[in-house]
Every structure is written in C-alpha cells, then in structure tokens.
Design goal:
7 domains; alpha+beta; single chain
C-alpha cells in the first residue's frame, strides 16, 4: 500500500461516526476509490441502512468540481430503474465535504464474482450483461452517460435465493449529455481497462463509450480478464487505440461465433461501428439467451446431466455440477396463502380486554385511554379486533386520524370528528353547519367556535387568540358531550403524535377533568410521544409478544406451508416479537427472499421487500408516497398512466404495502412503509413527482398549503414562497403556532432559493423581512427566543428600507421584553419609532408607540409612557389632538390606553373625554371589538363619576357587542360586574345568564361568583 493510499484510508476511517446534515450517520467505511470513499450509514430518521459516498477533500475545495458535482448528482438522481442504484440524496456537509446518499446493496461486484465463481456459465453472463444494458438504456434515455462502467461498478443483489439482480453503481462521475460542457475541461474520465478509444483521444464520454465499456465487461466475464490487459496504463491505452481484439474463442471453449461477433461489434474502434444503442445490443444478446421459466420453482434440472434436483440444492446430487443461478428477476408474485396472512391475533387477550372495557364505558369525566407502542407492535391490529367486537353492539365508533398529506393541517382530525358527529358532508355551507349544531342540542353561542374550526369566517376573528382558542375548545367539547347523550359513543384517535397542536390541545382538555360528561376517548401513539401526555390519563402499553405466543404464530405459519423461517429464538431476537416485523419477514420469504437476509432491522427489511417488487409497482408506490400516507386516487390517476395504475395498485395491496382504511380510502399499511418508499425514491425523480402532484392538486383542489408544499419540494421556489406564506398565515389564524412556524421557515428558504436562482421579481427583500418578523413572533410565543433573535439578525442583512428595519426593531423589542430586558426593548422601540416616522406609515408608528408605552409601564415609568402617547396623538393628528375626527386605524387603541392612564393618575373627567373619543374612532374604523372594549371602560368611568344611567347604557352596549362577537367569558364578566357602585340591585336574569355562560366554557370561578350573586342575601332579623 502506497503512502498516499494509507493516508486516504486513515482519513476515511476517521470519518466513521460522523453525522451529515442531521440525516446520515456513517457507521463503516466499505470502499475507497480515486474520487473518495464509500460508507455504510444509518439514515437517522428511519433507522434504515444506506450507502454514502464522500468525495475527497481536495475535490470538495474546488468550486468547479462543486458545480460539476451538483450537475452530475442531479442527473444521476433522475434515474429510477431496478438495475440502477438509486441516488436518494446529495449535498454538502457543514465543513464542505460533498456527499451522495444511495440505496445500500448487499452483494458481490462482478470483480468479486470472477474471483469466487470462475468460470461463470455463458447463459448467466448473458443475463447479467442484459440486465446491465437495461439499466444503461434507462440512463441513456434520460440523457445520462455513466462514463466509468466497469466490473467494480456492477453489483449483484442476491436477496432472492438463486437470483441475480444487477445493480449499477457510481453514477457520481456521470455527465449530462444535454448540458453544456465546460470548455476549459480537458480531463478524461474512466478506468483505463474500460476506456473507449475516442475518450482516450480526448472526446467526452458518450452513449457509445458506455456501450464499449459493456463490451469489455462482457468479454471479461467470459474470458476471465479484460481484452487489452497489459503491464502499464500506457500500454493498455495504446492497445485500446490500435490493437485487435483477441478472439473469445481462443480464450474460452464453447463460445459461439454469434456471441464473439456481438463482443467484436461492441468493441469497435469507431463509435459509429458499435451498436447504435443499449437496446440494440440487448436485443442481439437476447437472441442467444437460453429460455428459462421466469418464476421460482420447487425443482430444476441439472444443465450438465439433466438430472432432476430440488431448487434448494446448490449442487447436482448425480454429477456434482453446481446448480446454475437464475439471473432474471422473478416478476410473478402470487398472493399469500389465506392461512398465513394476516397473522393470527395471539397473545393480546389482556390488552384487548382493557381496551374493550374502556370503549364500553358510559359518558363521564375520566374519558381518556392512551394506547402506546413502537412501530410494528400491533396497535392497529388491536383496534381492529376491538372494532369487530364492539361492532356487534349499538355503540357508534368515531374514528379519526391525522392529516393524510403529512402537513398536519390545523384542526384536521377534530374537524373530521365533528363532521361525523354533526353528520356533515366533507364540504358544508355555513347554513348547513348552523343547522347541524342546533340539531344536536347546542345553542347559537356554540356556532362561532365550531364554524371557525371548519374554516368559515366568523366574528371570532376580531377577538384575541386566547379568546378564539377558548371558544373553539369548549364548543368542540360540548358537541362531544351532546353526542354522548344521544347514545353509546366511543371516539378513537389514531397516531396522535402526528396531530396538529390545536387538535392536541382539544384532546388534552377533553381527557382532563372538565366537568363535562364526555364519551370514552381512545388515543394511539408512539411510546416516545406518550411520555409527553398528562400522567393522569390511563395507559395501555402494547409491547412485545410472549415467546409462547411467537411460537404459536410460527407453528401456524409453518403448518400453512411456509418454509425457511429462522429459528424461533433468532426470530424473537431479530423482530423483538413485534407482529408487524414478523409479518414483513413472512412476506419477504413468500416473495422469494432468503432466510438469512431476514435477520435485519425492520426498516432494512421493508427496503429489501421494496427492491423485490415489480418496477411498475414501485412507480405507483413512489407517486403515492409523494402524496402522503393516504394518497388520493384522483391525484394518482392524474399523475400516472391509467393502463398500469390499477394492476400496480392490486400488486401493492397483495404485497401488504397498500391497503384501505375503515372508510375505504387508499392508505399505506404503515407510516414506516410510506416513509421508506419516499426516501428510497431517487432525489430528482422525487422532485418531478412533486411537480406532477402540484399540477394535479391545482387542477382538483387548490389547497394553498398542499400546493405550496408540492411546489417547494418540486424545486419551484418562486411559486412556493407566496403559497407557503399564505399557509403560514392561515395556520396562525387557526392558532397553530407550530404549523405557522414551519410554513414560514419553508417560505424563507424558498425566498433564498429564488434569489440564488435569479428568479426574484423585486419583492424578495420585503417578503424575506415580513416572513422573518412573523416567524420570530411565532418563535417568541413558543418560548424560543434565541431562535427568534437569529431569524431577525439574518433579516437585518436583507433589509434596506427604514420601514422594514422598523418592523425588525419592533419584533426585537418584543423578544427583549419577553426575556425581561425592559431597557433593551425600550431602546429598540425608540429606534423603530424614528424609522417608522420617516416612512410616513402612521399605522406602524401607532403600533410602535403602543408597544413603547407598554414597555415603559412595565418598567414603572408611567409619566414617560403617557408623554409618549401624547406625542403619538400629536403626530397622528398633525397637532389636532384627541378631538380630531380622523386618524390611523389603531388610533382608538392609543386613546383608550391614554384614558386608562389618565384615570389612574386621578383625572376622571379627562379620562371620560378620551374614552368617548376612543369610542368614536373605534366605530369610525368599524372595530366591533374596539367599541366593546371602550364601552366597557366607559361603563366603569361613568360608574365612578356617579353617572349610573349612562354607565348602564354603555355596559348593556358592551354586553350585546361581546355576545355578538362570541366571547362568552368577556360577556359573563360584564354581566357579573354590572352592579353599579352605588346600588345594591342585582338583575337576576343577568346572573342566570352569567351562570349559563360560565358553565358552557368551564369557568369554575366565574360560575361560583354568579351563583353567589344570584342567591338572595341573608338578612338578619
């Protein structure tokens, strides 16, 4: 080993354990070449084994190489063929190293095959080369040249017993023929033994040079060495250019003249004299191929003596000749025997009894049961068997799951649940929803919360987020209570770890003590997520089966005719006795997989099963995975050719990879299967499928979040950034801060990409800053202040206009205030005020002054806060003061705030005048919430001034306004506080109203106050 190679080996080994982009952990170095090293790696998110190629450091430091790498990686990741190793990801690590992530193939290279199994039967050689040509043909149709085909770059995947599946690797130096070649590039690519004459002469690699390399490989497999083997590289290259090809018939017996002629044509010196395409060469070879059955058989015949022998025998029992391998992929996949799958439901009696006991409970306070377990333990199977038992009764089961697109749309599962309870169609009008709410015994006050949850515009949008959240939560819970009163009901929520946060909040409230008689609620989730749920909620952990139960399953399966299962002890250790894992082992064996390959992780086993499916089946699975765990058939039909779709869907269902949910909708059989299909799809193909999905979604159901999601992952940043921002705004409006933050973050990335690609229409700066401010506000609200500061710091680098910088100043001040840095907040707001004044945007000026006054008050400086508000009023009215009849939209808030401060300072008369002016401006800009808030303040001020009649009028107006807006708590507070300070009269009907409102929203303290005030006082005699 040379010093240079030793140094490269040492460097490569040091990288073992490294994590690339939070995606891949390198676990072992499995190969070193001239351009870099190949590692076995774990795909962290899925626990699946992949291969990762890291380019050498010196190549990663070359900007020209980086550009070339990205072009070539993109071209390679377009390829999707069973004979080509898929490129699933590529990129550049934080320290600059370039990497390609690809499917991991376990098997010998052709070089290793030549060492271990020499001679190789002619018919096997022909099949191997034909499969190689099929992969090369696919690449050439996509405009991709391999440029370094050789025996080391072809692996035989031998997952099926007795079957070779060719896998071509290392398209890392492929060139995109349709692209423009760098005129300064004078390098030649390839390995000397396989290099075509024209490439040696300086021409770029081409389709013809790939055909030449295949010819060399064909010759090598038949003759055990390459045709132009020599002692030095110079000699080898010279032989390619000038030497005649040694006849195969002189190097190996029983080679036909036709085969010799095919090799000679593939190795012609001039490209035009070779086969015109990979398809033409494959056709020529197929005419020589010995015809064999395409399916697995239980017996075979020895090609040497024609004796019958079992397919399991490696050698003929008569003459000892090795049994020849089948090299064509087995396409026929019979359905599993009915006795084998689904697996027998064994060993879950105790869990089923506990689940059934909970599902059969009546309405009550302790409504929740949390079923947890890891992937494959059988949570869904447990529910399915419970449904079969309960389905024989009169009980109604409402079953809901997460948003099937994977986007966790706000309130998706709760909306689905309420639609079932209210018996609403998927799309319903406001009138239909109102009638349905009233029909189950709810009242008009419950309509806004439920309508808001269904996405209808309601008066709640004028209220503060906590108010809207409270109304939506309690209206939902009251609807569930009414459903429980109408008959036996159970709610089942599956996979809640993938629910949106607003839906989770409703579930949490529903499973806590609420005072409502709710139906039993069953929730399923992962063990990890269950740890985050309130400890008071009862648990049902679904774990591994007992060894005796596993033995029963194995006995039943073997009795059904399956052979090749690993020993029970091995199966127990490998699968941890998880039914889902056991089922994949059985299906893998039924599909022709080898028993020894089943001793692997569940993600790797699922990936291995996918590799055994037909290409048409994989095509459909890949398109379906892009659409989510429950792909819509209409979208699939719009994306794929109709002639193959139905057959491929049927194959995928027979394989247990796709199925149907209880409502009959198409679904992947598990989240893991969907995720592995998605991540195993070649990267550029994945982008293309997202592009096709975007077109289909836009034509059928223009959901902005879904459309933005697909445009984003299709690599269309200009289309994605606006859609994702709107999706973030919608999520924020629906009180989903987590979802809003995710959409805003993706929109920011899309803006960066649009600028980098030169696709900016001049709005990028404004969009980036506005998005950053929104994202920072969301992060601050979630308590992630340091992340919020980082977002704003980057936004400052993008902002040039004073207005944009003022927006950043305001957001920065909010973060500082949330952390208790009052001085820092005040300083930022003062800077923002100055910048906003220079822009003339008085709405922004008022917002900044309001924030500044609040920060000063929090710091105990009321006088300065009042001074700042007066200054703001002068600026907003050009000196007219609070008597002005015009002003910016937030003007009423400035006046209301000043009125409260003046009242606190003891000037009740001026406070009353300011509040009346605030009411005028709130009504001027049609702010119903503003009018109600100011009327509430006016009632208090009039009470203090002894103006009882006027106070009552303002209070009644505020009550009516708050009631119409849908804020039950604020209405109840006004009702509870309606007694004038100089009177002992209590309006009984109002207290009864307050009692009802406080009960509806679960406000226990307010309810007790209403009860006390409505009770007649004890009068001592």
């Amino acid at each position: 080993m040379t010093d240079a190679l030793q140094d490269q080996v040492a460097k490569s080994l040091k990288l073992v354990g490294r994590v690339l982009g939070d995606k891949f952990r390198l676990t072992a170095c499995i190969g070193i070449g001239g351009s870099g090293a190949v590692y076995k790696a774990d795909q962290i998110a899925l626990g699946r084994t992949v291969a990762v190629k890291l380019l050498n450091e010196e190549l990663s430091a070359d900007q020209k190489m980086i550009r070339r790498f990205r072009d070539e990686a993109t071209s390679a990741s377009r390829l999707n063929h069973p004979n080509i190793v898929s490129i699933i990801d590529y990129g550049q690590a934080s320290d600059g190293l370039l990497y390609l992530a690809m499917e991991y193939v376990k098997g010998p290279t052709l070089t290793q095959l030549l060492v271990n199994e020499n001679p190789i039967p002619v018919d096997r050689v022909i099949d191997i080369v034909m499969q190689s040509l099929a992969g090369i043909e696919e690449a050439h149709l996509g405009g991709v040249v391999h440029a370094d085909l050789k025996a080391d770059n072809i692996i035989l995947d031998q997952r099926r017993a007795g079957v070779d599946v060719v896998k071509i690797v290392d398209f890392g130096i492929a060139r995109l023929v349709t692209g423009v070649r760098d005129p300064e590039d004078r390098s030649i690519s390839g390995t000397p033994e396989y290099m075509a004459p024209e490439v040696i002469s300086g021409a770029p690699p081409s389709f013809a040079s790939d055909i030449y390399a295949v010819g060399i490989i064909l010759y090598e497999l038949l003759a055990y060495k390459t045709p132009f083997f020599a002692g030095s590289t110079t000699e080898i290259l010279a032989n390619h250019l000038k030497a005649m090809i040694p006849s195969l018939q002189t190097r190996r017996e029983h080679v036909s003249k036709d085969l010799d002629a095919i090799v000679a044509k593939a190795l012609a010196k001039h490209p035009n004299d070779r086969f015109a395409s990979a398809a033409e060469m494959r056709t020529a070879l197929s005419s020589l191929q010995v015809k064999r059955p395409r399916t697995m058989t239980t017996s075979a015949r020895c090609l040497a003596c024609n004796a019958a022998m079992s397919a399991a025998f490696k050698f003929c029992p008569e003459c000892g000749e090795p049994r020849h391998r089948v090299t064509a992929p087995v396409e026929v996949q019979p359905a599993p025997p009915p006795d084998l799958l689904p697996l027998a439901f064994i060993g879950r009696d105790a869990e089923l009894a506990q689940l059934l006991e909970h599902m059969r409970k009546g309405p009550g306070k302790d409504s929740g049961l949390l079923i947890s377990g890891v992937e494959g333990t059988g949570r869904s199977a447990l529910l399915r068997h419970a449904y079969e038992r309960v389905g024989q009764e009169t009980r109604v089961i409402y079953q809901v799951g997460p948003d099937p697109s994977g986007l966790a749309a706000p309130f998706y599962p709760i909306r689905s649940l309420l639609a079932a309870v209210l018996q609403l169609p998927p799309v319903s009008s406001e009138v239909e929803l109102r009638d349905a709410v009233l029909s189950i015994g709810l009242n008009e006050r419950d309509i806004p919360g439920i309508a808001q949850l269904f996405g209808h515009p309601t008066t709640l949008l004028e209220l503060e987020p906590p108010v809207r959240r409270r109304e939506m939560v309690w209206s939902t819970l009251r609807a569930l209570e009414r459903a429980a009163m109408m008959g036996p009901v159970t709610v089942v929520c599956e996979d809640i770890e993938r629910f949106d946060h607003p839906s989770l909040e409703i579930l949490r409230r529903g499973t806590e003590a609420t005072g409502l008689a709710l139906p039993p609620i069953v929730m399923t989730t992962t063990t990890e997520f269950a740890a985050q749920w309130p400890v008071a909620v009862p648990r049902l952990e679904v774990g591994a089966l007992e060894a005796s139960a596993l033995q029963q399953i194995v006995d039943k399966v073997e009795k059904g005719g399956l052979r090749g299962l690993p020993p029970v002890q091995t199966l127990y250790q490998t699968t941890r006795a998880f039914p889902g894992h056991i089922e994949h082992v059985i299906r893998y064996l039924l599909e022709g997989g080898k028993s020894e390959d089943t001793t692997t992780s569940l993600p790797d086993l699922v990936a291995a099963r996918l590799s055994l499916q037909k290409q048409t089946t994989r095509d459909v699975l890949q398109a379906a995975a892009v659409l989510g765990i429950e792909p819509q058939l209409d979208l699939l039909r719009a994306m794929l050719p109709a002639d193959t779709l139905e057959v491929a869907l049927a194959d995928a269902e027979r394989a247990g990879l796709l199925g149907h949910d209880p409502s009959g909708e198409l679904t992947f059989t598990s989240r893991l299967v969907r995720d592995i299909v998605y991540d195993a799809t070649p990267a550029d193909l994945r982008r293309s499928l997202h592009g096709a999905a975007a077109i289909a979604v836009e034509a059928m159901s223009p959901d902005i979040a879904l459309l933005g999601h697909h445009h984003d992952l299709a690599g269309h940043p200009k289309d994605a950034m606006t859609l994702l921002r709107r999706a973030g705004d919608h999520a924020a409006e629906q009180l989903d801060e987590v979802g809003a933050g995710q959409f805003y973050q993706r929109a920011l990335v899309a803006v960066r990409q649009a600028v980098q690609s030169g696709d900016d229409d001049g709005t990028a700066e404004g969009q980036f800053v506005a998005l950053s401010v929104r994202l920072a506000d969301v992060l601050r609200a979630r308590g992630e202040s340091s992340l919020a500061r980082g977002v704003l710091a980057e936004a400052r680098d993008w902002s040039g206009s004073p207005m944009l910088v003022a927006m950043i100043d305001r957001a920065s001040a909010s973060i500082a205030l949330s952390e208790g840095d009052i001085d820092g907040s005040i300083a930022a707001l003062r800077r923002g005020v100055g910048r906003a004044i220079s822009t003339g945007d008085m709405n922004l000026v008022c917002e900044l002054y309001l924030d500044l006054a609040a920060a000063l008050l929090r710091g105990g400086d009321a006088d300065t806060a009042l001074h700042e508000l007066i200054e703001c009023i002068d600026l907003a009215t050009l000196g007219e003061g609070f008597t002005a009849i015009d002003g910016p939209e937030p003007f009423w808030r400035i006046l209301r705030q000043q009125a409260q401060m003046v009242e606190n300072a003891g000037d009740s008369y001026k406070a009353l005048r300011l509040a009346e002016a605030a009411l005028f401006h709130a009504q001027r800009v049609r702010s119903r919430l503003g009018a109600a808030r100011v009327q509430q303040l006016l009632a208090q001020l009039c009470d203090k001034a002894g103006l009882g009649g006027k106070a009552e009028r303002y209070r009644l107006a505020a009550i009516n306004e708050m009631r119409s807006l849908g804020d039950r708590r604020a209405t109840a507070e006004l009702l509870l506080n309606d007694t004038p300070s100089k009177s002992a009269v209590v309006v009984t009907s109002r207290m009864e109203d307050a009692m009802q409102l406080t009960k509806e929203i679960g406000w226990a303290e307010g309810h007790e106050r209403a009860k006390r005030k409505s009770s007649p006082p004890n009068i001592k005699s």
